[in-house]
Amino acid sequence: MKQEGTQQQGTPVRKYKTPAEEAESKSRVHHPKLPAALEQELQEDLRKRILLSSNTLPSICFFTFLNTYQCLNAIEMSADASMIAAGFSDSVIKLWDLKRDSHKIFPDRNGPRKASAVGDVANTTTSTAGASTANGATKKSPTDYHLLQGHFGPVYGLSFTPDHQFLFSASEDTTVRLWSTEYKKNLVAYKGHNHPVWDVSCSPLGHYFATASHDRTARLWSTDNIFPLRIFAGHLSDVDCVKFHPNCNYIATGSSDKSLRLWEVNTGECVRIFTGHFGGVNTLAISPDGRVLASGGEDKNVILWDIGSGKKIKTLQGHKKTIWSLDFSAEGSVLASGSADNTICLWDINKARSGSTLNLNLQADNPSLLKLNNNTNNKESSTSIGDMLAMFATKKTPVCSVKFTRRNLLLAAGSFQGQSG
Asked: Is 304:310 a contact under the CB 8 Å cutoff?
């Protein structure tokens, strides 16, 4: 009789691991076990994931924030597209429940309006204030939000936990706060930085989070301890962004000193330094396989780095203004970038990586090519069209945030700027 969970010969059947399970098995940092409900949700998302390629581009859902009066500093969207949070200069956080209002946000059940390359992105308009009725009373909009108050300064960074039950926020008041998205209450205030905190990033497995600050340090925290576990010092200027490696063993940081650093969580030591930007680094992304680090910033370039060797893979050129956000697709084949030039660019990562590998192999076979490649390194490693799959433009909305869901829907958001000049 055949036993359940085994092959006929008695060899156990190998269970396919979700990305979270794979990260947990490779992590050298202790993490509490993921909730069963989240594991089930991850498996469901894995089954329904759409594989992207040069011929299969993602659908894009764009959220336009109105009436923000240039006070919107940070936007964060949950990985399951159920929530979106925004941090403002008046120290408040606004939280929208997209799952609750999905029938109002997406009234056309036949599908969203299609977006064409270098055209308008199909968008959903989100107002930060209720509409007024004829008698002057305030009427709640279909996408009504919850107001989270507790900070005493502008909010610059936001990050959801993997199960989107909690939200981290970073502020100019030097604190990081943990909020319950279910009860809409502040649970903990973490204090340790001496200057404004610019960014916060939650671990892919939860429990731990990292912060970046004006005090030139990044710090590692756990949710059950109000003081930092590690202090990562070495940057020469503000640490503007921070990102966890998928295996949770490393943390990447980007700084106004134009460099990136990779830190080992267990020891707190810097194991990689990446230099090549000509301006401050605003945003980071790490591929799901943990091999490629992408960075973007004030020099308008997206640079791909090989984490293993510490070398630059390629510079991707196409944006005309500062780059504010980067994110890899769930399988890592596509990179999305959002910029102040009102555009979203999609990049073919497989093509960029294969081209770099080919160049390295040619150099190994023929060392005489090395000098030529070094002399033309900037031209060879830069591209404006070759690795760009598509460009999508909004009318007058800079793209502040881009994020792939676990099923490869691309979410993007920005604040409408209206008439210029």
From this structure: no
Is residue 128 within 8 Å of residue 65, measured between CB atoms?
yes
Low-confidence ranges of the chain (pLDDT < 70): 1-31, 101-143, 355-386, 419-421
Please answer whether residues 52 and 329 qualify as being in contact, where contact means their C-beta atoms are separated by less than 8 angstroms.
Answer: yes
- Six token digits for residue 96: 């929208």
Tens of pLDDT, residues 250-261: 999 999 999 999
Distances (CA, A) of 56 to 11, 50, 53, 60: 38, 9, 5, 13
294 contact partners, CB below 8 Å, separation of at least 6? 284, 285, 286, 287, 302, 303, 304, 305, 326, 328, 335
Q: Which tens digits make up the pLDDT trace of 104-143?
A: 565 554 554 554 444 444 455 555 544 333 333 444 454 5
Tokens of 50: 């759409």
Q: Shortest CA distance to 340 belongs to which of 400, 403, 419?
A: 400
